[in-house]
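Protein data:
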Amino acid sequence: PELCRPLLGYEAKGAWRHVLPVVSSVFGGIDLIRASRLGPEADIAAWTGARFAKCRELVEQLVQARDKARGGELNVFGEELAECLGAAVAALGPDNVLQIAELRLLETPLSDTSFEQLSRSWMLLVLRSSCRRTFLAFFVAKFLPLASALKARAGQADSAGQSIMAKKYMTLLEQVWATLPAFFDEPLDLNAALLAEGGRFAKQLVTVLLNEPELREYVWAGFARACECTRNPPSNVSKVMQQSNRTCLSTLAGRVLPEMFNTYLKMHAESVGQDIARFSHGRKMAFEAVQGVV
């Protein structure tokens, strides 16, 4: 990582389009090594933390580059920069990268013309496409409170007659929930996260399925992805945790399947007179999730 840092200096900016894929490959190498680890999640977390300590200054440079990039510059190297930051998230974990690229969705006024830049809302898209082999507990601790706060802001704006502002907050809310399936991609703590406190998180997900149609697809996709990774482990990390994850999903099935079926029936009732293509996609995702849990 240290050898990459001079390549991201201001004097080399003209070559960033070619440099950033090289930096991405460094993170990719770390990710491959991490995926081959054969140890409990505590060991993987410690190993990842040690790698992050060595890569921290490099990640800081990348985040600073995104924070300061202008529209024209993003047209030149924006795609490569996003892919590089995504590779960092995959290799080092969202919990580590967000120590540097801290989200400021609530602190930044929506009316600010530089909202995307200042709030780092762009990071949500990076997380959505890049998280894997990380901790669901981090989503619970970091993103559920954020989602609740955004929903409250949307309600306040709507009550004040600020419908456009309310829609913007709801869009951010959906973008936060859209990261959920990625956290279910080879999670390191599936059993602990879903069954802790009497299955509190699992119950929250079921509540979303039943009562929040606009967010359902993310929950369905999350359950389906967890089941697929358990059935066909794509890495050594998942193979080590396969039996534990199977036990977790079997335990969970008895608690959530009735609600899943109820939601499926509710979706069918809601689809009457609506866009068939949209609801067909939703029912397909629901079917895949239920089939996986069963």
The mean pLDDT is 89. The radius of gyration is 20 Å.
